[in-house]
Amino acid sequence: MKIIKLDAIDSTNSFLKNLSVNSTVQDFTIVMAKEQTSGKGQMNAKWVVDGGKNLTFSVFSCFDDLEISNQKYLSFGVSLAVFETLNELKLPKLAIKWPNDILSVNKKLAGILIENNLKGNKITSSVIGIGINVNQEIFSKDLPNATSIKKIVNKEFDLDILLNEILIRLKSKLELLHKKDYAFLEKQYLSVLYKKNVPSMFKNNQNILFMGKIIGVSENGKLQIELENETIKEFGLKEVSFA
């Protein structure tokens, strides 16, 4: 395991992707930055946090035999590694919001962005970006649903210790992926999925409201919602939100 620590960078994911293109990067290389000037979230969203107070890092992971059709299990494993580490801190009402945000009491604590390198029908390697709000106490009004570990438990945490604990768990989850223990990863993930089997109000990307309940994740990684008429509809990223 190799850890590259930087004071400031535009994005740890971008840095690690460029590094892998221009040189040979060993498996489980980590890039950690005190500050990101252009941190990335899902679907080109920005990840904005105060420098030096939070964990922003990316992990390079190689795969020998991971088919693109099984990429949801990579997302499951990564989000579970973060979830289980934070769960040790006794944070209240911790859950994974599909696909891989970590919430505590309905507020966002951590986000994950996985960018894959593909060859044929296989994922050859991935850059796994993880951002966790740790010691930040004040957030922009543009982020009303953001929170941090310190805000919740009123205690400061050592970023290096927390990083190490996440990496230990991440390595364990990636080993399950290499062993193709997909059913176990899915069972673990669904057991902590936010609002699973809870009747909720949703909004689709046409701003139409509807009632339903999350029942699972489809083979191709889409969110499965059972509607009031008991039909099941599948939604991709940014196609549905809680109303």
From TrEMBL:
GO terms for molecular function: biotin--[biotin carboxyl-carrier protein] ligase activity. This is Biotin--[acetyl-CoA-carboxylase] ligase. InterPro entries: aa-tRNA-synth_II/BPL/LPL, Biotin_CoA_COase_ligase, BPL_LPL_catalytic. The keyword Methyltransferase does not apply. CDD domains: BPL (cd16442). PROSITE patterns: BPL_LPL_CATALYTIC. It comes from Tenacibaculum pelagium. Gene3D superfamilies: Bira Bifunctional Protein, Domain 2.
